[in-house]
Design goal:
CATH superfamily of the largest domain: ATPase, nucleotide binding domain
CATH topology of the largest domain: Nucleotidyltransferase, domain 5
Helix content: 40-55%
CATH class of the largest domain: Alpha Beta
Largest sheet: 5 strands, mixed
Distance between the termini: 22 Å
Strand order of the largest sheet: 8-7-6-9-13
Bound molecules: zinc ion
Low-confidence stretches: none
Number of helices: 13
Number of strands: 18
Structural class: alpha+beta
Mean pLDDT: 93
Number of domains: 3
Strand content: 15-25%
CATH architecture of the largest domain: 2-Layer Sandwich
Radius of gyration: 24 Å
Length: about 400
């Protein structure tokens, strides 16, 4: 879009934003190519390029003669102009990454814990931020922001309103981290962050309407409609783990009965595995142990995974009936179970869902594995930083 009239400063900002976008997506690219692609004049492109170069967002390589004539000077997006920290806070783990401006993971750290005390967990989050900050290479902008995905519902002020599996209420995490680190902080529900990660870097790159189903200790969903994260009136949409699939079922931490996550999550899987004859009380049953048993062909474990897969398929059927998405992405810890749960999920969908829904539906597993949430969280901070700079003019 090129504006010819109107506020000249706004026009310049929009054009700068267009030029930086192209450089991010298509670099290396020459000034002439940018001019051709955007329709902006060569003089305008040159002036915006020198501004972006002064701001360290781009650099140029190559000049001089070759047999075929003068080689154009190519412009490169400087992905190392700054870095972002993305943190996936689970119910019993923290996975934290440091990325460059294109989302490449430069460094990472992870830990598990058994506490749910908020001060202890927040202390651990701060320690991982300090650690990754100390690992950050020298760059013009340094760390540009911190994104944190949390297993609970958050409001637009970055307060965790309720995290059922940690029993946290009203934790002002954004405020606390911003005070400690003096950097912009984004707090988002982990499934929303995961959906964003898959949309920007993973399985959902070219899909406009997708639902990311994050299956770990609980189940959360991130809803992307028309390329935008749908958050609802109060920012808490997507709590589909708490859709009741059995009105007289087990009691859930959320207060409801028979919630989907009580039948189809990691907690459900591990809890049901305790009654299998394969494992006596000496076993510490984990997802990894069950994966290993499934790999060895343990019939009891395979049956259990099949049952869990049926329940996952049942919930997905409900989701598709509401949203008619192009893509469902199963992510978080259960992306490890693709070999065993893909078939039952597909079978249930085929049996229960209207053929009209099935025509365009694609059910896939996360391409980013355990990193969807951390990458999505880092990407929120990156886009805030870049959009701020795109719109600032000397
Ligand atoms: Zn519930």
């Amino acid at each position: 879009m090129i504006m010819k009239t109107g506020d000249q400063n706004l026009v310049k900002k929009l054009n700068k934003s267009i030029v930086l976008d192209i450089l991010q997506k298509q670099s290396p690219i020459s000034r002439a190519q940018i001019s051709k692609t955007t329709g902006l004049t060569k003089a305008t492109v040159s002036s915006l390029v020198s501004e972006l170069m002064n701001e360290s967002f781009i650099y140029e390589i190559g000049s001089g003669e070759s047999k075929g004539g003068r080689k154009p000077v190519m412009l490169y997006f400087n992905k190392n102009a700054g870095y972002s920290i993305g943190i996936d806070v689970g119910v019993d783990y923290i996975l934290a990454i440091l990325t460059d401006l294109q989302g490449n993971i430069i460094d990472q750290t992870e830990m598990t814990f058994t506490t749910s005390l908020r001060n202890e967990i927040i202390e651990k989050i701060k320690n991982t931020i300090s650690y990754l900050s100390s690992r950050c290479p020298t760059s013009p902008y340094g760390i540009v922001g911190i994104g944190v995905g949390v297993p609970g519902i958050t409001d637009i002020n970055g307060t965790i309103l309720f995290a059922p599996n940690l029993d946290w209420h009203n934790v002002a995490l954004k405020e606390e981290l911003e005070q400690t680190f003096n950097l912009p902080v984004v707090i988002e529900n982990e499934a929303n962050a995961g959906a964003h990660g898959e949309k920007v870097y993973g399985a959902g790159k070219n899909v406009s309407n997708l639902i990311y189903v994050s299956i770990g200790t609980g189940i959360g969903t991130g809803i992307i409609l028309g390329n935008e994260l749908y958050k609802g009136e109060n920012g808490i949409a997507g709590e589909m783990g708490h859709i009741s699939i059995d009105p007289n079922g087990k009691k859930c931490n959320c207060g409801n009965l028979g919630c989907w996550e009580l039948y189809a999550s990691e907690s459900a899987l591990v809890q049901q595995a305790t009654s299998l004859s394969t494992f006596n009380e000496n076993y510490d049953i984990t997802l990894e142990l069950l994966c290993a048993a499934a790999h060895e062909g343990n019939g009891e474990v395979l049956n259990l995974l099949n049952t869990i897969g049926d329940y996952i398929g049942l919930g997905i059927t409900n989701i598709v009936n509401v949203f008619n998405p192009k893509q469902i992405i199963i992510g978080n810890r259960f992306s490890k179970l693709e070999s065993w749960i893909a078939n039952p999920v597909d079978r249930v969908i085929e049996q229960r869902l209207l053929p009209q829904h099935q025509q365009s539906l694609e059910v896939t597993f996360s391409h980013l594995g355990a990193y969807s949430c951390a990458l999505g969280s880092a990407a929120f901070s990156l886009s805030n930083f870049l959009s701020h700079h795109k719109m600032s003019i000397d």
